[in-house]
Design brief:
about 230 residues, alpha+beta, Lipocalin, 2 domains, two-stranded antiparallel ribbon, 2 helices, Lipid/polyisoprenoid-binding YceI-like domain-containing protein
């Protein structure tokens, strides 16, 4: 082989390897680094006594800090030599509830999965398109299926807990879930939060084949909702 061509070939191969490594890194690193954006829990510190009756028609609103309406997920990522927790969330939420005689008789929230956000734009795209397939399943929802007694919810800006059962639908698959909710009557608002343990396989959520890390099967759904009278 021509001695002049040999360094050129070696240099070309090295450049190809470098570019390939960079291409893989730009896909994997943004998808699987950083803790993401987690939906917080109900915070009663700035709450004031209730100024409206609990009975009535309620709708999801944006809320006030720190109780801004948000829904998200938290899972562990299993790397070859490490495990880390990653979260994503969205404030794209619609919903309503009906309370009669201090009993929650109906309730539904719908989550815009196309607006899920972590802390990295490239990861956001992969979470939406590759993991939750939002082009085919743009929304997730939860609908209350059993009446809930709210008569123990105080009106003095303190937190109570209630058990809520309903149907959770993600990627077109529905499962019944039951969870303990923290509930707070705050001025003219009603705020609630919960963490629902889920197994992603129950909802058809798979780890994309191109991903080096694997997502743990068990994770959680994080919910913080503020509502006002409709």
């Amino acid at each position: 082989m021509d001695r002049k061509r040999k360094p050129l070939i070696i240099g070309t191969v090295a450049a190809v390897i470098l570019l390939a490594t960079f291409a893989v890194a730009t896909v994997l690193i943004p998808v699987f680094q950083g803790p993401g954006v987690k939906t917080g829990e109900l915070d009663p510190r700035n709450a004031t006594a209730a100024t409206t009756e609990i009975d009535g028609a309620w709708k999801v609103v944006y809320g006030d800090a720190p109780n801004i309406s948000s829904v998200g997920f938290t899972f562990k990522e299993l790397l070859p030599s490490d495990a880390r927790t990653t979260s994503g969330s969205t404030r794209g939420i619609r919903g309503n509830a009906t309370i009669s005689d201090a009993t929650l008789t109906s309730g539904r929230i719908e989550v815009d999965m196309t607006s899920l956000s972590t802390d990295t734009e490239r990861r956001d795209i992969n979470v939406r398109q590759k993991i939750f397939e939002t082009d085919s399943y743009p929304s997730a929802n939860f609908e209350v299926t059993e009446n809930v007694d709210l008569s123990n919810i105080p009106d003095d800006a303190t937190v109570a807990e209630v058990t809520v059962t309903g149907d959770l639908t993600i990627k077109g698959k529905t499962n019944t879930v039951t969870s303990q909710y923290k509930v707070l009557r705050d001025g003219n608002k009603l705020t609630l939060s919960t963490t629902i343990p889920i197994n992603r396989l129950d909802f058809g959520v798979e780890t994309p084949e191109f991903v080096a890390a694997k997502i743990a099967e068990d994770g959680e759904l994080n919910i913080l909702i503020t509502m006002m009278k409709d």
